[in-house]
Amino acid sequence: MIKYLGSKRTLLGALVGVAAAVPELRSVFDVFSGTSRVGHAFKRAGYRVVSNDHNAYAHTLAQCYVAADREGVEAEARALLRELSAVPAERGYFTETFCERSRFFQPHNGARVDAIREAIEARALPEPLRSVALTSLMEAADRVDSTCGVQMAYVKRWAARSFNDLALRMPDLLDAVPGGPCEALCLDANAAVREVETDIAYIDPPYNQHSYLGNYHVWESLVRWDKPDVYGVACKRADVRERKSHYNSRRRHRAAFEDLVAHTRAKLLIVSFNDEGFLTRADLEAMLSERGPVTVLTHDFKRYVGAQIGVFNPSGERVGEVSHLRNREHIYVVPTAAGRRAVAGIETRLAGLG
After folding, report:
1. Regarding the domain with residue range 1-69+175-206+246-354, which homologous superfamily does it belong to in the CATH classification?
2. Are 183 and 67 in contact (CB under 8 A)?
3. Where are the domains of the chain?
4. What is the C-alpha separation between 111 and 99, in angstroms, rounded?
5. CB burial readout 131-142, b (16+ within 10 A) else e
6. I want to staple 95 with a disulfide (CB 3.0 to 4.6 A). Which of 91, 106, 179, 343 is the partner?
7. Angle 10-12-18 from CA coordinates, rounded to 5°
8. DSSP class of 98
């Protein structure tokens, strides 16, 4: 899967372990799905998963990794990826924007992206085949990029991996699960929680000022293929300036999160939030306790790479030092009134997971 700020790769075992402590619960709503790494892990564990994210690239990843069932799409997808791999490179919008005006990828790989993406568009593919192809292309480009993991900037000298040739691979599709078809939604999170009801809701919101759209604007443009106007050295989409999330605003974050928690329809809430966010542990415990008793599991982890290399101004001059190299991720587990009987004694069952 693509490199991603806020990825819960190191927490997957703990998150699935929390759900496994309540075997009666078999469906999960991933409210802010991002790369779908968490939804993919829950589907692998046999849960029916509904994933949601308002960004187009994240919705595409969820269509591939959550909604698509291997047995229904794999054979056709493999044949398609072989065809796309043979498409001759041709310079276009992607090369001009992200290889020449900026330096996220080397031009020889940019021309491959351009040609393959145009071929996908020309085929008018049905879902989930289209999302499987786009995910393969996104991940192929991610393996040859020249960044530190986010698309706010690119490195001054070409990263060693950027010299490699872009190569499509089959995404890790999963078999269908017994509980019914998994789904991928592309809704505002606060609207989505009013519509979706599952046994478990996994809530991992943006927690500070860093916008996922701004950090991964290249993937948004690759998936939408709307060839937008761009601005700045990083060639961000023009709509990054308008498509703002309440969760990236210190002033609006609390109200948005309170509203979301109050309207989430699930027997068990699993909330992930780290100690660099707008809300403190005390804030979150107070807020979540309105829905039910709160158990907190804490995990220590290394900060994302961009926070480990110092603080730089727009000219690339180092202007500050790193204050700390590790963070704590808190997992808040909350049985709601709707699920109090089903999850009775969960606090005891969770002992040893923190």
Report:
1. Vaccinia Virus protein VP39 (3.40.50.150)
2. yes
3. 1-69+175-206+246-354, 70-173+212-244
4. 9
5. bbbbbbbbbbbb
6. 91
7. 130
8. I
pLDDT in tens, 270-302: 999 888 889 999 999 999 999 999 999 998 766
Write the single-letter amino acid at 35: T
**Which pTM does this prediction carry?**
0.91
Query: Could you tell me which of 275, 54, 40 has the C-alpha nearest to residue 177?
Result: 40
Quote the tokens at residue 108: 């020889």
Write the DSSP symbol of residue 161: G
Residue whose structure tokens are 């393969």: 136
Question: Tokens for 276?
Answer: 């660099």
Tokens standing for 286? 């107070």
DSSP β-ladder status, 27-30 and 48-52? parallel
pLDDT at 6: 66
Residue 349: its pLDDT value, please? 77
CA distances from 226 to 151, 152, 223, 283 (A): 18, 20, 8, 40
| Residue 103 and residue 154 in contact, taking contact as beta carbons nearer than 8 Å | yes
Strand 230-231 relative to strand 183-185: parallel, antiparallel, unpaired?
A: unpaired
- Evaluate whether 294 touches 288 at the Cβ level (below 8 Å): yes
CB 141 within 8 Å of CB 89: no
Q: Is the link from the previous residue into 128 a cis peptide, with omega within 30 of 0?
A: yes
Structure tokens at 238: 């023009």
- How far CA 84 is from CA of 80, 118, 127, in Å, comes to 6, 10, 17
Which helix or strand (DSSP H or E) is residue 130 part of? Answer: helix 129-142
**Dist CA 18 CA 131 (whole Å):** 30
CA-nearest of 114, 351, 132, 313 to 218 is 114
